[in-house]
Amino acid sequence: MENKSYIIFSLHDLQYGIDALLVQEIFYIPELITIVGVPKDIVGVLNLRGKIIPIMHLSLRLDNQLKECHLSDSVIILDYDGLQIGLIVNNVKKVEVISKVLIESDLDYGRVKDINSRFVAGIAKINSDTVVLLNHHNLLRDPEAVEALIGEDNQDLDKSNLVNNFYASCCPRATPKDKVVFRERADNLRQLVNDDSSTELKPLAVIGLNNEYFGIDLKLIQEFTTIRNVAPIPCCPSHIIGNMNLRGGILTLVDIRSALNMPLAETHNGVKAIVVNIEDLIAGLSVDEVFDVMYLHPSEVTSLPVAVNSNNQDYFQGTAAYGKNMLTILDLPKLLTNKLLVVNEEI
What we know:
The protein is mainly β.
């Protein structure tokens, strides 16, 4: 496989990447419960919808000193051979498709040389950025062994002294207001399991179009790619960008902005695209950016505001919070079968 998708994130001024297929969920760091008898890099555990998840601080796992955590830090939940473990990082940036030809194994430069080589799968140079690709086989401890240390009686995890240990070790300068936010996050993550309407999480890819955030069902996405060498298609409407060669196959590129009442974007080599497969309809959608992969619980989705244009409303499944921004969830199958996106061969 020539290309592979990675979640790109930062930690102490370095950028890292980890296999996107392992990522189950991403959220801002909540209040954690500390326990005794676990490796030092396991800074606490989290009740995630009824399941106790060990949370590892990546800095400690990489044999670095622990810098205090902040409200802006994130937790990446990884599913590793059916077991779950969380990584604390700084900022999760985007999903990046990295070609094997961009990956090298030389660690002998800059701050990268100070990282234990057994945790590194390779180094990728993307534009002017250096991204450390992590070897998850060596990085992740056995979550099941950590969970066994917790015991079956999870009521002990609610003791206040165990919560206070988290603040003392990870967030020594957290204000009372900060602690309220940390605690609310933990409560929300724990209590979602009580929503009987649905407990199934919806995986979404978060994309950017014209400075707005949209969510697309991850199950519809075949891969992420970069647009190159587009061949125009004669007698097609303006939203049909053209065709490009994708590993020997012809991929038709579409700009969905027109269906969303947005101005079309200029398309050139290097623009990002997502390849979608909907009932054997395969197309490439040009996007400004692929920011994230997230897992959304149905209770986090709200109905559309009344002010939303009725012409667009058919293509929206709802909205959800994405950091400080609003995320609009697209009904991509309905959007792509709209007459605006069908090529009339008789033109």
